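User: Hello, can you help with two protein structures?

Assistant: Certainly.
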Amino acid sequence: MNIVRAGFYASIATAAKLLAGLVILKLVAWMAGPEGVGRLGQFMSLMSVLAVLAGGGISAGVVKYVAEYRHDPQRLSRLLSAALWYALCASCLIGCIGLLLSGQIAGWLLGDVRYQGLIAVLAAVQLGIALVNYILSVINGFMDVKRLAFIQVLGSLLSIALALVLARWLNLYGALLALVIGQLLVLAVGLPAWWRSPYFQRGMLRMRFDREMTLRLAAFSVMTLTSALLPPLVNIAVRDHLAAQFGWEQVGYWQAVSKVSDAYLLFLTTAINVYYLPKLASTHARAPLVLELRQAYRYIMPAVVLLAVGVYVCRDWVTMLLFSADFATANSLYAPQLIGDVVKIASFVLSYVMLAKAMTRLFVASEVAFAISYLVLVYLFTARFGLVGTMYAFCVNYVLYLVFNVIVVRRYLGEL
């Protein structure tokens, strides 16, 4: 399996997930306008945070170590038993906290305590989400990209049907509820698909504490949690700042462009995650590692440039199709955002070396530092340029992050 074939299957899965997300986005834009889309972003950020916390943030660690241990049955069994135990404990803890604080979270994040029931449902399904993360990580670690794509496609199609039904029945509340329940539909598809795989063994569902493997996962978990939790938390802070400065309608314009950006980049980031994380984790020599990085830039960078140019040229049509005529003001925000997207992908390819090689301290320090720098840049640039300053901050921050990653990877390769 090479990056082209992996990218093909990942693109199919991504298209299905993208379609499901856009259906929700269109429903919310139609029912609640720019303000509703702004609040949808807050709820999706919360979902992103809890989805990672549900399994203790070990998904990338499971992918890495399954890729390393798949030819060593004894160590693989120990790893997976420890991973399932870790995920169960974390999901139960997060679920209980979410249930206890559901009212406060609804009031703080969504500005309306009527959404308390929605937050409670999200907390209650954390165990199921943790199991979904575990199953998909094991499949990804074995680089079974076709099976992974099948699960994600079918799960996304079921989520679309659910969203249409619940939105018609419960309006905005139903659309948000579909986002939560839709994650469990992936479990309904993924579990039987995993059972039928040639590498599945019943022992993979056995839980057991293993000190060595738990420590390995915990160290790796710190990196994953940092990279997964900081962006939604930072985005929450950015939305609050923009809402205070410009109002929630302006937040909706920024959120709309950000969602378009996330949507088309999902094709590339999924391919990078599905292929490069297990590949780089199992590659230890300098020459093949350099070859993989060169192939990444050969195939991925032309793709991201073409996609970014396409989105810019069609920005009026894209905004109208995905949102409504009320979002026309957002069209002026695309250019700096799309330039930042290209730089973002260039930096992501290199940053996976830190993740795959478990450079825990350096990775965490860099994630924290660049999250802070982004917030600082947002405050500085919005004060000078207005709402578009948020996009300028995004672009400049990723230029700095790319330079940092080039230095780190060059140093790592020089030590091999």
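That covers the first. Now for the second protein you mentioned:
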Amino acid sequence: MRHFQTCLAAALVTLAYPNITSGQAPLTAPPSAGVLPPKPGAVVVHAAKHATLQEAFDAVPDGGGVVLLPPGNFEITQPLRVKTSETRIVGAGAATCIINKNDKGEPALIIRPANLDTDKKAVLWRVQLADFRIMGQEKSGDGIVAEKVQEIYLEGMSVDHHGGNGLSLLQCFEDARVADCIFTYNKTNGINIFDCHDIVVNANHFEENQDALRCVDSFNLCMNGNNIDDHLRHGVIIENTYGSVVSGNMIEECNGTALILDRDCYGITLSANVIAHHLEGGIDLRDAHGCGVSANTFTIAHKFSVRVSKDSGRNTISANNFCNTYIGGGKDKRPAEGKTPMSIDEGTGVLLEGAEFCSITGNTFSGLSTAAIWSISPCRGLVVSSNVATDCGRKLPKDSKWIALDDAKASVVKDNVME
């Protein structure tokens, strides 16, 4: 039967394209394949045929084109500049490495309209970077600075060891996309976003930057499926941004806090993230309203798993799991004491510092050193219901309350299971 199907498929291909014989690729595609002539003015630039990388970038005309980078290490002392729209720069993977030797804090690569200083409305469109590495050092600046570039797209890039940010997106207002890249050992942020809109940051790796990602004065950030590990300060910082989603990320081992919303954030969903092993906390709603915190897993957060400040309100915290390293059978995976905070068992709950009009429902709290939910400043308008708590308050005085909200006004605390 399989032999018959193979012969039939071959016969159908031969009938459709009679010039193709078995084992031979066609020299030209048939008209129905949609092959079009190159865009007028667009070119293919082989960087290996030019004296410098900058010369290769300058060879791209206004009509755009593709620059093919060969394997090799390419040392630079001044920023490389890309000034044309419709331009794609492609390397040979990590074998293509641009090394920034500049010691005056300048970036490795700047993507920016050539006339931006004289025309504030100038923009570039559809610049793409793919499959090469940009490496800096402590005295260099950012790895990549993109300013006023619409529909910028980075894929498969390695950006590491820079004295500033790995990637800065500045007023790249329309549809910035960063996917399948790795940002490591940068002295500031892995990605720094300022005044952008409809930003997609998906399936990237962030390791040992100061902070993984900072998004400021923007909206519609879509950050999903990223792996964020071992950061020297915080994981994700979002300020003055709305209408965004941060979901399905793994955020582990920050010396500060995993995820911070600050400075007039609203309408943001933080969902289905694994937030593990943070010396300070998990999610910190410093100045956030109308946000949802749901279906996240918090473990080994040392001071709090979720904190809601007096400047935050109207938020929902539901269906999350707050836990320690318990693995069943009366056993914790990590010891109660250790040489470093990162080496010990820990679990914390929800800390409220004067929060207003929040619902905290349907969560599970277990194995916590703290109470499940507690306040240190008077709160108002809370609904705390249908939560499950067990084995909480391990480091609290005996008989301490696991839901400690006695000072909350105009609030409902009921139907919680505590065992």
